[in-house]
Amino acid sequence: MTQNAQKTIVNSWNEWDPLKHIILGCADGTMVQAPETAIQRDWPKDGFPLGTYGPYPQEMVESANEQLDNFAKILESHGVRVDRPTPIDFNQVVQTPDWKQETMFGCTPVRDILLTIGNEILEATMSYHSRWFEFLCYRPLFERYFKEDLNFRFEAAPKPRLTERSYKKDWWKTWNSLSEEEQYERAEKGDWILTEEEPLFDAADVVRYGKDLFAQKSMVTNDAGIDWLRRHFPAHRIHKVGRRELLPWHMDTTLIPLRPGLALMNPTRLPLDKVELDLFKKNDWEILQAPKALLKKKYPLDFCSWWLSMNTLVLDPKTICVEASETPTMEMLDKHGFEIVPVPFYKVSPFGGGLHCCTADVYREGTCEDYFPKQIEGF
């Protein structure tokens, strides 16, 4: 894929400063992953019952790439430089001395693996065997950024071993045997599949508010991962948040900032307890409840949240990209002074997410600011 010849500056501290350079994913070669301990894929109606795997249908790949390419053109029309990853052969066996995996996954949800803090882009650990080598898709970009930006910090979190000790034995079997209320009770305790054997986190479980980072414990991020992030970014305040939900999606369909003083919350997930909510109130933040999505039926092989309607991409504090079919979300944001950029994107969701999931910041104008100067003890 062609890349803009413009030289690179890496810098991004939050989710809303004016966006000038971004990485956008690609659907080529995406796989329904071969079975592994961390996840279960079960789509019998779509040709992939539990335990089966293989490439996504080519017509789905083409439809997703059409929407991704269209999004790239929209971003470029707003003055944003767009770079793309280099897909590798995801339909191959990969292994380390500790495990062997029959396939990989893909490189559409860029946000899952890349976290940009200031002049640093950090590769997350990942907790799936099928995504362990996904970082290779971005190395050609980072090699170029490293040559072009003398201040660019190219970092990778310690690659995890992902032995069986990293996962709770028979977790899925136990989970599937529980009643819904029992599942909720387990979720409230943060009792997901990962153990604390080693630090594990997805980059998309971290949302950036300048000096404050909000990190979610989930199916792919454990307490050790959040502790590693605290040590790695000692100049930041990292707040751990949990949630009461049955499927622990990433933070960008849970709680997202729109601009200083304004955030969007998923009303079904209770992402903020009293202490967390007090932090926002104490610092004069308004929290909007996301309207219910209009999406009635997911596309085949779609494992993403029903709330991709709130998975938006802010171009600047007055301009925001929203899934083109989600009129309630667009109308609400319009009332709060945003210029809306509608982007058709739901055909991309089976490949790993929405507008925010499938992008990762490289450069936003602005500096690291403190948007929560009034802190609450113990959080």
- Based on the structure given, which CATH architecture is correct? 5-stranded Propeller
Looking at CATH, the homologous superfamily is: L-arginine/glycine Amidinotransferase, Chain A
By oligomeric state, this entry counts as: single chain
What number is the mean pLDDT? 93
CATH class, please? Alpha Beta
Provide the domain count.
1
Helix content: 10-25%
Using the coordinates shown, work out and report the CATH topology: L-arginine/glycine Amidinotransferase, Chain A
Q: What would you call the shape?
A: globular
Describe the main β-sheet briefly. 3 strands, mixed
Question: In terms of structural class, how would the helical and strand content be classed?
Answer: alpha/beta
Report the count of strand segments.
19
Q: Gyration radius, to the nearest Å?
A: 20 Å
How would the blueprint of this fold be written?
Elements: E1 19-24, E2 31-32, E3 54-55, H1 58-77, E4 81-83, E5 94-95, E6 100-101, E7 114-117, E8 120-123, H2 139-148, E9 153-156, H3 171-177, H4 180-188, E10 206-209, E11 212-216, H5 223-232, E12 237-241, E13 255-259, E14 262-265, H6 274-282, E15 286-289, E16 313-316, E17 319-323, H7 327-335, E18 339-343, E19 359-364
Parallel strand pairs: 1-4, 8-9, 11-12, 14-15, 17-18
Antiparallel strand pairs: 1-19, 2-3, 5-6, 7-8, 10-11, 13-14, 16-17
